[in-house]
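Late entry, evening session. Most of the bench is empty. Finally got around to the prediction I had been postponing all week. Sequence below, unchanged from the version circulated by S.P.
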Amino acid sequence: MGPKIARLALCAALLAGGAAGSGCMIFSRSARLDAYIEAHPQASAEHRAKMARGEIWIGASHLHVQVAWGYPSRVNRTVTGESEHEQWVYRSGFGGDRYVYLENGWVTDWQD
Protein backbone atom coordinates (compact mmCIF):
# COMPACT_ATOMS: atom_id res chain seq x y z
CA MET A 1 0.00 0.00 0.00
CA GLY A 2 1.47 3.35 -1.04
CA PRO A 3 1.90 6.24 1.42
CA LYS A 4 -1.04 8.24 0.00
CA ILE A 5 -3.42 5.26 0.24
CA ALA A 6 -2.15 4.41 3.73
CA ARG A 7 -2.76 8.00 4.90
CA LEU A 8 -6.32 7.76 3.64
CA ALA A 9 -6.74 4.38 5.33
CA LEU A 10 -5.54 5.77 8.67
CA CYS A 11 -7.91 8.73 8.28
CA ALA A 12 -10.78 6.36 7.50
CA ALA A 13 -9.92 4.23 10.53
CA LEU A 14 -10.04 7.33 12.73
CA LEU A 15 -13.39 8.41 11.34
CA ALA A 16 -14.83 4.90 11.62
CA GLY A 17 -13.88 4.92 15.29
CA GLY A 18 -16.46 7.60 15.95
CA ALA A 19 -14.18 10.61 15.96
CA ALA A 20 -15.75 13.68 14.43
CA GLY A 21 -14.39 16.92 13.07
CA SER A 22 -13.17 18.56 9.92
CA GLY A 23 -10.62 16.14 8.48
CA CYS A 24 -8.22 13.95 10.40
CA MET A 25 -5.74 16.61 11.45
CA ILE A 26 -7.45 17.53 14.71
CA PHE A 27 -7.23 14.20 16.50
CA SER A 28 -4.98 13.68 19.47
CA ARG A 29 -1.96 11.40 19.40
CA SER A 30 -3.77 8.92 21.62
CA ALA A 31 -6.71 8.77 19.16
CA ARG A 32 -4.32 8.27 16.25
CA LEU A 33 -2.47 5.56 18.20
CA ASP A 34 -5.71 3.75 19.08
CA ALA A 35 -6.76 3.80 15.40
CA TYR A 36 -3.33 2.56 14.30
CA ILE A 37 -3.34 -0.30 16.81
CA GLU A 38 -6.84 -1.31 15.76
CA ALA A 39 -5.77 -1.39 12.12
CA HIS A 40 -2.38 -3.00 12.90
CA PRO A 41 -2.79 -5.32 15.92
CA GLN A 42 0.56 -6.95 15.12
CA ALA A 43 2.44 -3.67 15.81
CA SER A 44 5.32 -4.22 18.20
CA ALA A 45 5.13 -2.99 21.79
CA GLU A 46 8.34 -1.01 21.20
CA HIS A 47 6.86 0.87 18.25
CA ARG A 48 3.60 1.48 20.11
CA ALA A 49 5.52 2.94 23.06
CA LYS A 50 7.63 5.19 20.84
CA MET A 51 4.59 6.54 19.03
CA ALA A 52 2.79 7.10 22.34
CA ARG A 53 5.76 9.25 23.47
CA GLY A 54 5.73 11.20 20.19
CA GLU A 55 9.03 9.70 19.03
CA ILE A 56 10.04 8.84 15.48
CA TRP A 57 13.05 6.82 14.34
CA ILE A 58 15.14 6.00 11.28
CA GLY A 59 13.28 3.27 9.43
CA ALA A 60 9.86 4.25 10.82
CA SER A 61 7.04 4.14 8.31
CA HIS A 62 5.09 7.19 7.21
CA LEU A 63 2.19 5.90 9.34
CA HIS A 64 4.39 5.77 12.45
CA VAL A 65 5.26 9.44 11.86
CA GLN A 66 1.61 10.39 11.38
CA VAL A 67 0.68 8.70 14.64
CA ALA A 68 3.60 10.21 16.60
CA TRP A 69 3.65 13.74 15.14
CA GLY A 70 0.32 14.10 13.37
CA TYR A 71 -0.23 15.28 9.81
CA PRO A 72 2.35 17.57 8.24
CA SER A 73 1.55 21.17 7.38
CA ARG A 74 3.15 20.64 3.99
CA VAL A 75 4.65 17.83 1.93
CA ASN A 76 7.38 18.50 -0.62
CA ARG A 77 7.75 15.54 -2.98
CA THR A 78 10.41 14.57 -5.52
CA VAL A 79 10.06 11.51 -7.72
CA THR A 80 13.21 10.20 -9.40
CA GLY A 81 13.31 6.93 -11.27
CA GLU A 82 11.80 4.38 -8.93
CA SER A 83 12.18 6.44 -5.74
CA GLU A 84 9.84 8.89 -4.09
CA HIS A 85 11.46 11.36 -1.69
CA GLU A 86 9.34 13.46 0.62
CA GLN A 87 10.05 16.25 3.05
CA TRP A 88 7.27 16.60 5.59
CA VAL A 89 7.12 20.06 7.14
CA TYR A 90 5.58 20.54 10.57
CA ARG A 91 5.01 24.25 11.14
CA SER A 92 5.27 25.73 14.57
CA GLY A 93 3.88 29.11 15.47
CA PHE A 94 7.01 29.71 17.53
CA GLY A 95 9.62 29.32 14.74
CA GLY A 96 10.63 25.79 15.68
CA ASP A 97 9.61 24.04 12.47
CA ARG A 98 10.33 20.31 12.24
CA TYR A 99 11.14 18.33 9.10
CA VAL A 100 10.92 14.61 8.35
CA TYR A 101 12.60 13.09 5.29
CA LEU A 102 11.19 9.91 3.79
CA GLU A 103 12.22 7.68 0.93
CA ASN A 104 9.49 5.45 -0.48
CA GLY A 105 7.46 5.96 2.70
CA TRP A 106 10.24 5.24 5.23
CA VAL A 107 12.03 7.76 7.50
CA THR A 108 15.63 8.42 6.51
CA ASP A 109 16.25 11.54 8.63
CA TRP A 110 14.57 14.37 10.51
CA GLN A 111 15.25 17.80 12.00
CA ASP A 112 13.60 19.23 15.06
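Two things to note before I forget:
Residues 3-16 form the longest helix (14 residues).
The chain has a mean pLDDT of 84.
Will write this up properly tomorrow.
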